[in-house]
Amino acid sequence: MTLVDERIWSLFRNRSQQTLTYWSAFFSFGLCLAFLGPTILDLRCQTQSTLQQITWVFFSQQFFLLVGSCLGGLFRKTLMCSLLALFSSTLIISLVFAIIPLCHHVVLLSVAMGLAGKAMGVIDTISNLQLVKLYQKDSAIFLQALHFFTGLGALVSPLVADPFLADDNCVLGANWTTNSSYSDLEHLRNSLGGHGAVLRNTSQYPLYTEGIVITRVSYAFWIMAIINLPVPAAVLALMYHEKLVSCSSSSPRLLNRNPESSSAVGSSQGHEDMFDCCSPVRIRGRPATFFILHALGGAVVFITDGIIGSYAGFVYTYAVSPPLLMGHKMAGCLDSIFWASITAGRLSSIYLSYRYPAPVLLTISLVGIILVQCLLMIFYTSCVFLFIGTCVLGLCISSVFPSMLAFTEDALDYKGCATTVLVTSASTGEMMLQLLVGSVIHSQGSYSFLLCSTVTSCIGFCLFLLFLYIHWIHRNHPKECSSYMDMKEKQEAPEEPNPTAKEAEPPGLPNLSRSHWD
Fold first, then answer.
1. pLDDT at 434 over 90
2. 94, 79, 73, 82: which is closest to 28 by C-alpha?
3. Residue 240 and residue 518: Cα distance in Å, rounded?
4. What is the C-alpha to C-alpha distance for residues 344 and 335, in angstroms, rounded to an integer?
5. Residue 407 and residue 389: Cα distance in Å, rounded?
6. Residues 114, 116, 121, 127: what is their CA dihedral angle, to the nearest 10 degrees?
């Protein structure tokens, strides 16, 4: 018995260059996603700013990542636009890595991080959109691999930065002495992983803003810029392979170019940009379930990606606070373990998504998230169980977004805006839930961290159950509405001189979700 059947391997071989290019772009996304937390104190020294000022760069990156996710759909009209936007975004990330050492003011650094965040958002939307369009009903396997490369990049980035981080205060005061110990700086560095939402009692650490800067973190950014350079080169090579490098008035559609697509339905109808698919012409006559599925799918990933962001940001703060009072060095490993388990979970989900349908994987994952968080609340005094729970939570939550994206697209027959909506919702949740959980921890104490995560996990599972119910209704919706929409789409499409078109026209499009998920 082979791990993957010949049909999947054939699909991958026929689209290997495109697929590997989108995977490498997500490696670039992960590389840029994870470098800020470990290097934030050295960047504070470089810009000679306070802790409160430097934490604005976190907000700048997250906010413009959300903006980029929304704007990414605008470049989806043609393959030329998509690849040109992908090339520009991956190149911008290398350029930002290169110019960060030259940003000696916190405002300039925030602008640079805003550019990087916008590029990350465009990469996020376009890579997901193109893979879904490329493989359609078989996209779940390749989406899992895509998000595995995010985790891989997020693991590489801190490893590159670690040798160049300052062991003590990197700005010498007027007396040319350093008063902050290595453990104090590690404590601050790990606490700032929560985007600065629970900064308090920082006056005990003498962090100077005036003096001699002795940081070496510039080398880490230049190395990451070099590591990232093959990614825009790969996108450029794909443009050359698709014969898009020269200025051409018409660019081929990716699915139209290859006759062996995984689904022959709607190759030119699905995935218009956000403004096209939300136009009155497009949405007129759609059943209510069509819009509810968009909203519920976005709500589920809003919660799960928000849990990922808040857990990674505040698990250190929870561990070093009462009742655990874990050592700074040991607690600092929790974030790395969490991301490593997410990466391992996405790697294993590549095979699992081939063997099991998305609803099964999603149900197991969401139930597992709730059970782990409930057990963490029960054994809240156990340091050992916190490590075990962190690892299991990362494994459970790792596959939710790619599975939910593939499931939602299949439920909508690849005709909606599901990818754009879900990517934007995930980015919004990652930013908003971190701010919400951070403010709750600041006012109610560290134990509320687990309570917030557990409550949001239960809400997410309830929304998923509602999604399944609405999907069942949508699937069994009377076919008259579907036939009406098919006729409308054919009227809006440009007519071609084909005398046999009427004879070959089917009475209606088949429901792709019925055969795949039942």
1. no
2. 94
3. 41
4. 14
5. 27
6. 170
Domains belonging to the chain, first-starting first, are 10-245 (1.20.1250.20), 272-489 (1.20.1250.20)
Confidence (pLDDT) at 249: 46
CB atoms closer than 10 angstroms to residue 476: 11
**Predicted local distance difference test score (pLDDT) of residue 284:** 67
Instruction: Give the Cα separation of 105 and 386 in Å (integer).
Output: 39
The angle subtended at Cα 383 by Cα 380 and Cα 388, nearest 5°, is 90
What are the angstrom distances between the C-alpha of 6 and each of 2, 3, 9, 12, 353? Answer: 9, 10, 5, 10, 16
For residues 450 and 317, give the distance between their C-alpha atoms in angstroms, rounded to a whole number: 12
- Which residue do the tokens 């509810």 mark? 292
Instruction: Please say whether the beta carbons of 173 and 206 come within 8 A.
Output: yes
Closest CA to 373 of 465, 459, 442: 459
Question: CB of 357 within 8 A of CB of 514?
Answer: no
Q: Dig out the tokens for 257 from the structure.
A: 């170019």
* Residue 419 to residue 76: CA distance in whole angstroms: 11
pLDDT at residue 187 above 80?
no
Instruction: Residue 373: name the closest of 352, 394, 345 by CA.
Output: 394
Tell me whether the omega of the peptide bond preceding residue 323 falls within 30 degrees of 0, making it cis.
Answer: yes
Amino acid at 291: F
Is residue 290 within 8 A of residue 412, CB to CB? The reply is yes
Predicted confidence at residue 262, as pLDDT, reads: 38
Specify whether the CB–CB gap between 244 and 81 falls below 8 A.
no
Total count of residues recorded for the chain = 518
Distances (CA, A) of 328 to 317, 319, 355: 10, 9, 41
Q: How many CB atoms lie within 10 A of CB 443?
A: 9
